[in-house]
Amino acid sequence: MSQPPSLRVLVDAQLPKRLAHFLAFHAGYDCLHTLDLPEANHTQDGAITRLSMEEERIVITKDADFVNSFLLHGQPYKLLLVSTGNISTTDLLELFRQFLPQLTKVFAHHSYVELSRTLLVTHR
């Protein structure tokens, strides 16, 4: 059985760079963190959205402004909203470890997904 294609993601500033490393090494995702960009964590949302569209990257964020942009304009390319509230990096990585198999599958058919502490919710 063949592996699904690797997802391309961009992890936003409110989330730790360790998440990007985790996704790259444990899931084989093509990952960037805003710290990897020229403006680092000062990169404006518009620049993140443009890069997402140009490179077909899923934006992983806690920033609800991206939800508004996605619902109004269909941008960024795809969106994963992390709606866990404050969470330790260890717990966040464990949450992603738990939902990784589902994430890869849902993004094949959905463009806006929300991850809470207990659920992975797809939005239309």
Write the layout of secondary structure elements.
Blueprint lengths: L7 E4 L5 H11 L2 E4 L11 H11 L2 E4 L2 H10 L4 E5 L6 H18 L5 E4 L4 E4 L1
Parallel strand pairs: 1-2, 1-3, 3-4, 4-5
Antiparallel strand pairs: 5-6
Assembly context of the chains: single chain
Number of strands: 6
Q: Indicate how many domains the architecture comprises.
A: 1
Summing up helix and strand content along with how strands pair, one would put the structural category as alpha/beta
Q: What's the average pLDDT?
A: 94
> How many strands, which pairing sense, and closed or not: the largest β-sheet?
6 strands, mixed
Q: Which H/E pattern describes the elements? A: EHEHEHEHEE
Count of discrete alpha- or pi-helical segments spanning 4 or more residues: 4
Shape: globular
Roughly what percent helix?
Answer: 40-55%
